[in-house]
């Protein structure tokens, strides 16, 4: 190190710069220390309250957690003050990894005391907390492979503890954990490799900043790297969340104690929040891919505004603001689904950012159009930032990236949707006074509203079950999909690819429905389905499932004609899709008539 400062060593290499930046990212996140302590204290409190954890052991565990957390925070402060040169990245990286090792070993030692042999619901709570914390490690320590690798440390003690219990359920859980761990390691490695690639591009681009032609090339490379990162990360992150959602869905099919059901509901709500975040990213990709088309129809405005505001009213009441809908009899011509997405984003955005006062939603006539308005008394948007708010992930009043304030994708989605709908979007804003968004929609003549169908004609009437072929190359998802579909009464045959699927049906009738992941090893989902059709000689209805947000892949799947569902997949959406295809296959005369 001294030689480097004396000029004996050459300029740091690109690898050194990348590693130094990765170490800087490790020390940049200080909130994770406090969130980990808060989660640990909450978990210990619940276990003490349930009389499954000794207060003395809890105090010892939390005390040691506090001690090494304070030490790690001290190292972080020292790093910030030192602002070390690039050449010293190894020393500071070792300190961070050492802290991660101590943290992992602390959990490893404590877990046998946290897991209650008599309470499977509390065991589930502890393990789910550990799993969620593992995904948090990707954000807090995933920048450096050595630091991320320490997430393995607590799991051997969990697996050994479960195997020691000896019953079938615990042995199965231990096997599932062992199957799940490699997928997380793969996801962390991909995250790290993609991050390293992005950092390398960043430093290479900085070296060409003086050349205008090189700057253009750099911008294109960065954009491509960003697209690859989002597509790969989205798919890899969705896989375990998708599997976890199916396991929770399967758990609902069992008789559980009331407390266990409450924990399942809380886990389901957390997965729903992740689904919302992924859906926003997916919306941007689908819009950029050009696979969304407008299907305009005459529609009344009042029911749409009332429904959206009714759903957002609890949030407004909790903040003490008034959410007001001005009555209207207007009818407009627009795509009902896309227009609802536009207004829902605008109204929820107004409620989220308004701290006092009101949000008013209404409709005014403007020539041959109606002007749908959303007014609020929020902080307003400075004039020089009014274009920036339509950029992805940009937020005016959220420098700390508070997730409660959203991702910064609402307005970019609104701009893309209004362009597809050909509805001009206007914005007026005054800092400290509030913001008004206007969407100009063509007027339409009021139409006669048909009466709703009788219960006998409902979509879910006469629900049937059948034989489902589930194709996915990840074992955990096959297990989860099988458990979920069987809990609905279906017979499930799971396969890792088209060859295994064809072999499974050589001596039995063809399945009723195929549910296939699109991203398989050595083939796509479309190719796998067509190979199964060719081998069985039957055109079996099929559903494609994907966690990929790449515009190219989305266009490819849309062109295949198969229904497409996106991970993490809601149970209701999957059940409705499977039921519809089974009913259609069971009614060939009706299908032929169409």
What structural keywords apply?
594 residues; alpha/beta; five-stranded mixed β-sheet; five-stranded parallel β-sheet; disordered N terminus; disordered C terminus
Helices and strands: which structural class? alpha/beta
What is the overall silhouette? Answer: globular
- Poorly predicted runs are 1-7, 398-404, 451-463, 589-594
Distance between the termini: 78 Å
Number of strands: 14
The helix content is: 55-70%
Number of helices: 20
Radius of gyration of CA atoms, rounded to a whole number = 27 Å
Order of strands across the widest beta sheet? 2-4-5-7-6
The proportion of strand residues reads 5-15%
Give the overall average pLDDT: 77
How would you sum up the major sheet? 5 strands, mixed
Can you lay out the helices and strands and say which pair or pack?
Layout: H1 2-5, H2 14-28, H3 31-49, H4 55-82, H5 89-114, H6 120-141, H7 145-148, H8 155-165, H9 168-207, H10 212-251, H11 258-289, E1 297-300, H12 302-319, E2 322-325, E3 331-334, H13 336-353, E4 358-366, E5 369-376, H14 410-421, E6 425-430, E7 434-442, E8 467-471, H15 475-487, E9 491-495, H16 498-504, E10 513-517, E11 519-520, E12 523-524, H17 525-536, E13 542-546, H18 551-560, E14 564-566, H19 571-585, H20 588-593
Parallel strand pairs: 2-4, 8-9, 8-10, 10-13, 13-14
Antiparallel strand pairs: 1-3, 4-5, 5-7, 6-7, 11-12
Helix pairs in contact: 2-5, 2-9, 3-4, 3-6, 4-5, 5-8, 6-11, 8-9, 9-10, 10-11, 10-15, 11-14, 11-18, 12-13, 13-14, 16-17
What does this entry look like structurally?
The chain is of the alpha/beta class. Helix content is 59%, strand content 12%. It has helices at residues 2-5, 14-28, 31-49, 55-82, 89-114, 120-141, 145-148, 155-165, 168-207, 212-251, 258-289, 302-319, 336-353, 410-421, 475-487, 498-504, 525-536, 551-560, 571-585, 588-593; strands spanning 297-300, 322-325, 331-334, 358-366, 369-376, 425-430, 434-442, 467-471, 491-495, 513-517, 519-520, 523-524, 542-546, 564-566. A five-stranded mixed sheet has the order 2-4-5-7-6. Strands 9-8-10-13-14 form a five-stranded parallel sheet, with helices on both faces. Strand 8 (467-471), helix 15 (475-487) and strand 9 (491-495) form a beta-alpha-beta unit. Helix 5 runs parallel beside helix 8 (155-165) and helix 12 (302-319) runs parallel beside helix 13 (336-353). The radius of gyration is 27 Å and the shape is globular. The relative contact order is 0.07. Residues 1-7, 398-404, 451-463 and 589-594 have low confidence and may be disordered.
């Amino acid at each position: 190190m001294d030689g480097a400062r004396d000029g004996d060593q050459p300029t740091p290499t690109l690898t050194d710069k990348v590693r130094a930046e990765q170490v800087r990212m490790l020390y940049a996140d200080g909130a994770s220390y406090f969130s980990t302590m808060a989660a640990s204290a909450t978990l210990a409190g619940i276990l003490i309250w349930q009389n499954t954890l000794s207060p003395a052991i809890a105090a010892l565990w939390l005390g040691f957690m506090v001690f090494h957390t304070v030490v790690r925070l001290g190292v972080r402060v020292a790093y910030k003050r030192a602002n070390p040169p690039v050449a010293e990245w190894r020393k500071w990286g070792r300190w961070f990894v050492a802290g991660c090792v101590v943290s992992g070993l602390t959990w490893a030692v404590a877990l046998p005391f946290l897991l209650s042999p008599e309470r499977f619901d509390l065991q589930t709570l502890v393990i789910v907390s550990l799993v969620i914390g593992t995904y948090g490690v990707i954000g807090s320590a995933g920048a450096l492979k050595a630091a991320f690798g320490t997430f393995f440390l607590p799991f051997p003690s969990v697996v050994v503890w479960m195997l020691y219990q000896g019953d079938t359920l615990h042995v199965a859980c231990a096997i599932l954990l062992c199957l799940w761990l490699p997928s997380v390691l793969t996801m962390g490695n991909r995250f790290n490799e993609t991050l390293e690639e992005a950092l390398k591009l960043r430093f290479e681009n900085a070296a060409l900043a003086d050349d205008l032609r090189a700057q253009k090339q750099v911008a294109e490379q960065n954009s491509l790297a960003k697209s690859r990162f989002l597509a790969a990360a989205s798919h890899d992150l969705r896989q375990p969340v998708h599997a976890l959602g199916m396991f929770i869905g399967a758990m609902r099919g069992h008789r559980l104690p009331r407390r266990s059901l409450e924990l399942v509901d809380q886990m389901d709500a957390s997965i729903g929040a992740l689904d919302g975040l992924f859906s926003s990213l997916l919306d941007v990709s689908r819009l950029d891919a050009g696979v969304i088309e407008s299907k305009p129809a005459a529609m009344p405005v009042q029911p749409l505004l009332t429904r959206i505001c009714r759903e957002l009213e609890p949030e407004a009441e909790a903040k003490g603001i008034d959410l007001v809908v001005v009555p209207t009899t207007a009818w407009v011509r627009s795509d009902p689904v896309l227009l609802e997405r536009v207004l829902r984003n605008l109204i929820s955005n107004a409620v989220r950012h308004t701290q006092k006062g009101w949000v008013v939603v209404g409709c005014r006539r403007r020539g041959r159009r109606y002007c749908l308005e959303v007014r609020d008394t929020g902080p307003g948007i400075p004039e020089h930032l009014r274009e920036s708010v339509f950029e992805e992930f940009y937020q005016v009043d959220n420098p700390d990236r508070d997730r409660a304030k959203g991702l910064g994708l609402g307005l970019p989605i609104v701009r893309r949707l209004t362009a597809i709908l050909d509805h001009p979007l206007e914005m007026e804003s005054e800092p400290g006074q509030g913001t008004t968004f206007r969407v100009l929609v063509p007027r339409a003549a009021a139409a006669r509203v048909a009466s709703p169908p009788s219960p006998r004609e409902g979509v879910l009437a006469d629900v049937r079950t059948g034989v489902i072929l589930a194709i996915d190359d990840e074992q955990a998802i096959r297990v989860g999909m099988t458990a979920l579909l069987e809990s609905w009464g279906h017979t499930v045959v799971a396969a890792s690819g088209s060859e295994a699927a064809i072999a499974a049906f050589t001596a039995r009738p063809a399945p009723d429905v195929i549910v296939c992941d699109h991203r398989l090893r050595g083939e796509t989902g479309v190719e796998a389905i067509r190979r199964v059709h060719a081998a069985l000689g039957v055109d079996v209805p099929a559903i494609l499932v994907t966690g990929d947000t790449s515009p190219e892949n989305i266009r490819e799947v849309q062109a295949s004609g198969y229904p497409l569902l996106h991970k993490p997949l809601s149970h209701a959406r999957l059940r409705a899709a499977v039921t519809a295809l089974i009913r259609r296959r069971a009614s060939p005369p009706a299908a032929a008539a169409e």
